[in-house]
Design a protein that fits this description.
By secondary structure, the protein is mainly alpha-helical. The chain has a domain of 81 residues: Orthogonal Bundle (Arc Repressor Mutant, subunit A), CATH 1.10.10. The protein has six helices and three strands; from the N terminus they run H-H-H-E-H-H-E-E-H. Strands 1-3-2 form a three-stranded antiparallel β-sheet. Helix 3 crosses helix 6. The longest helix has 22 residues. It comes from Rubrobacter taiwanensis.
């Protein structure tokens, strides 16, 4: 009995393989993209990034939005900052964070839109 979703014969479509290989980004680019997806795979960090895509927030505001202690929010922001996802500026005694890359905002919006559309399709 053939397994579902598995080829039943060994055939390589050389042109399709060539086109797919040519389209692949360099390994370093793929590694970096995987790091970003890894950071965003945590729901708390995703919520923080999404909130920062709306507007710049101080650490206390990020903590309130994400339902975290200030210390926990600061820890998550440091992880995001170390990977270049967010940056901050100081204003007096406050540290304001912002999303560093517009691409991430669009990526999150597309992903959330996909989930909402999927949810709508299953509830119809």
């Amino acid at each position: 009995m053939a397994s579902e979703g598995v080829c039943e014969v060994d055939v390589i479509h050389a042109e399709a393989v060539r086109r797919a290989r040519e389209a692949l980004p360099e390994e370093e680019v793929t590694r970096r993209a995987t790091e970003i997806f890894g950071l965003l795979s945590d729901p708390t960090r995703s919520r923080i990034v999404y909130a920062l895509s709306v507007e710049e927030l101080c650490v206390c505001d990020v903590a309130a939005v994400a339902g975290l202690s200030i210390s926990a929010a600061s820890h998550q922001l440091k992880r995001l900052r170390d990977r270049g996802v967010v940056s901050f500026r100081k204003e007096g005694r406050l540290a304001y964070y912002r999303l560093e890359d517009e691409h991430l905002r669009r990526l999150l919006e597309d992903c959330v839109g996909h989930v909402l559309a999927e949810r709508g399709a299953t509830s119809a």
